[in-house]
Write a structure and sequence with these properties.
Layout: H1 3-30, H2 40-49, H3 51-68, H4 77-90, H5 103-141, H6 154-162, H7 167-173, H8 176-203
Helix pairs in contact: 1-2, 1-3, 2-3, 2-4, 2-8, 3-4, 4-5, 5-7, 5-8, 6-7
Length: 204
């Protein structure tokens, strides 16, 4: 990779990390939305530039948040890494449509793109909810590493606990309502931003 391109990529990674750190703060503190939403720009980098930039942004965001918010060590970074891997494995290819393509071809192309993104969104929502629930269960009951802050799924946990469900099921199911919204924003938002980012890089 050319040094100039490497510098650009490094700067973009730093910007992506900062945005992934402060976007959740904005949504929770100013808009009152109880979402995780801390991997939008890691997903953007994965869509635009591939596996290593995506993982780098995910890991460094996690590391920075652990230090800045004093969260202590936890394993939830595995959720972000897994999400980046899924994106890179299943993301659509370059979506270029000829200027004078027939209407039917344009509709079919966008339908295929939407279907692939929808599949990726559903897989990410299920996978991240399951993995996050397992990590929470193992951290609390085996390693005795409870979180030091409230989480977006806590409200749903209360109702599930009262239903006498097993602890592991509670930890997984409580995350699904959050991730249904959260992963939609991450996958579709990350893809849309990545297309603009790729175009910007090409023009410069």
């Amino acid at each position: 990779m050319a040094p100039k391109r490497l510098v650009k990529l490094g700067v973009l990674c730093i910007i992506a990390i900062l945005l992934d750190i402060f976007l959740p703060v904005l949504l929770r503190n100013f808009l009152g939305l109880p979402l995780y939403i801390d991997t939008v720009f890691a997903a953007t980098m994965a869509f635009a530039f591939g596996l290593m930039p995506g993982i780098a942004v995910a890991v460094l965001t996690w590391f920075t948040l652990c230090i800045y918010w004093g969260l202590g060590f936890h394993f939830y970074v595995l959720c972000s890494i897994t999400e980046v891997i899924l994106i890179c494995a299943l993301k659509p290819g370059p979506h270029e449509i000829p200027q004078y393509a027939p209407k039917e071809k344009v509709i079919a192309s966008y339908s295929n793109l939407a279907a692939r993104l929808m599949l990726l969104y559903i897989l990410c929502a299920i996978t991240v909810s399951t993995l996050g629930g397992i990590i929470n269960y193992v951290s609390d009951l085996i390693f005795n590493l409870p979180l030091h802050h409230s989480s977006a799924e806590d409200t749903f946990k209360l109702g599930l606990i009262m239903s006498n469900l097993p602890a592991l099921a509670v930890n997984i199911l409580s995350r699904i309502p959050i991730n249904i919204v959260d992963r939609f924003i991450v996958i579709f938002g990350g893809y849309i931003i990545s297309r603009g980012l790729v175009k910007l890089i090409r023009e410069n």
